[in-house]
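Sample A.
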Amino acid sequence: MKNVTILKPEECCGCTACYASCPTKAITMQPDEEEGFLYPRVNEEKCIDCGKCLRVCKDVRPYQEEQNIYACWSKDDSLRARSSSGGIFSLLAEKVLTNGGAVCAVGYSEDCKECLHKIILTPDDLDDLRRAKFVQSKKYDVFQCIKDLIGGGRIVLFCGTPCEVGGLRQFLGKEYDNLITCDIICGCVSSPMVYRTYIEYLNDKYKANAVSVNFKDKRKGWRGKAIAVKFDDGIEYYNSILDDDYCVSFHSRYNIRPSCFNCKYRNLKRGADFTLGDFWAIEKYNEEYDDNKGTSFVLVNTSKGESILNSLDLVIHPMDIDFEEYCMKYNWCMHHNPYAMPEEDRKTFYHDVVTMPFDQMAAKDLEAIKQARKNKKIEQKQVRYE
């Protein structure tokens, strides 16, 4: 047998490269019953054992060019306020869109119960794609759509997790001058089922329907991390990510895809033109670069990326720092995997998610983790200001 059914669940990141590559459309992406993560399912009657799905799965190709690090932010404070960090993704996207290109990144379904990769053609649709989403997206047929767009000569910007960018490049099989890729400093991906259950719980609690979700609301500053959910009756749920039950479930490491504990893309060498994230601890390198409005960590991995970054209208500061040392101290998820929680505790968590109200599940399974995280943040804040 030469298809992806031979892979263990912890070997599959859900990137959909196998699904997009199958010449007979024998593969579909289906959620597993216990945790709700999407995995490839093969129709053996359609499968011709060509092995293409396995080849694209294993063909991980990070770039080997010289890398440069920058601290960046948009000159437009309103844009920074609407962005997770410094607004660099938005600047890249606006440049591509105003030049007739397309942008593919993660947005929300109309009912906010699902995250999915969307392709947009106008700046008017960009706001939905801004900001981090703490959920693994559905990709549907976007890889094939991107191939069609770049094959037709259109510039395309694709942004996603390292495994999603890797999956796209592996599906395409060759480099394209008119494809620009951004991966994020990824803190793992969480279950679409758990997220949907959480939104449905909030809808029921507030007797309304969610119309927008922001996992990195910055009204209290870049470090005042908060989630804000707006409903169709004008009510808003707002809470620190340290207290919000869904965010705690994500940071607990229960609500993390199994492959994230042994990620083959988590590396200092990256597979995208740009790697974007928060420049945590920037004040330790230069206090003037930190105004608590959001500073982007921009790692440029290709000469194409370098040329594009220098064409943007932004504040940009080259950072002559030890890359590996910085990541070890302040952004460890760039190249270090998290450790897994006890398997029995993980099984209990997913059982309770579907059998108990979300707040009751959290009180039972997450309260000790919540308190430990809050205590750790207090200690870190004390160290920062000593």
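Sample B, a different protein:
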Amino acid sequence: MPAERLYYDDPFRLTFTARVTGRREVEGRPAVTLDQTAFYPTSGGQPHDVGTLAGVPVIEVQEEEGEVLHLLEREVAGDAVAGQVDRERRFDHMQQHTGQHILSQAALELVDARTVGFHLSAEYSTVDLNRIISPADAARIEERANAVVFEDRPVIARFVTPEELARLPMRKPPVVHENVRVVEVEGFDWSACGGTHCTRTGQIGLVRVVHTERMGGDTRLTFLCGWRALRDARWKHEALEQVGAALTAGLPQVPAAVARLQAAEQEARKALERAQKQLLHYEAAELHAQGEQVGPARVVRAVFTGRTLDELKVLAREIAALPGGVALLGLREEDARLCFARAEGLPYDMGTLVREAVALLGGRGGGRPAEAQGGGPEVGRLEEALEAAAARLQR
């Protein structure tokens, strides 16, 4: 005989007594079935309740072939047990799940978007809508949902007959036609659901859509209701106050202050890039002056550490921009990196030269005749690779 599910009639019922009707092991843990229970099992996108049976922690509640399985931390003694459902988790799930019903109906009413998925986690909830909606549409849906909350409408959950079901304007047709439980937000939404819900919309508290994300042709709304929405608003306000204090700006002025800071940072970055490029220009001229004359070429051979590959490329190009300039540059990192470049008009093929040199490094490389890069793991042979490239130029 399946357990009587007390949460169907009263979602606020958290205590009960019951008789143990079965014992088994599930996933390596003791589990019991009862003749009646207030514990909600995971189903319909809503997670299970937690609490205690005879003082023993209930760590998971599952539904299996119409039975409710209470997975326990340890065996419970006796055939009669007292149950206690965790109030905070139960009410949180009631707020989120009822809020989802209202959001789903608001989306259908305002933008003809049907809900095709729902997920309730410990931190946030999501609904997936079957069309792309804009941020402006999401804001309208959020406002409509909150209007229904503020109206404090009754929320009625009841089992209906097939005849009654046929007369109801269901948001989504149920997959079964017998023992159908309908959750009605009075005059607004009718949905088949076995979950735990608030009994009035005012109990949901604030409904906040905090993120929208495109999922192929669908849109996922991430939302928070009630206490979750309050905690989210609190930490965001505290964070904004900290940013405002750091920028010596009032909260309404924070976006403009951040924009000014970003503009200043961007300008400073550009100025730094110009200065770095100028320094590389001077460094290239100095290295070029110290380079080895090989026929028409002025060959610069050098190994660096603590620089970026982009810097090395710029330095090689600056050297190649000077008369007869040939840059054979190496960078010692976790791997060895090579960057070769030559001036226009010289007969050398830097792509071929790099490929020959990286063979000594156990790696790969290539590029154009005027500029090429490569690298390999044999860092200890970096100088040898550059020497081989210089010798190749002399031949």
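Observation for Sample B: The longest helix spans residues 254-289.
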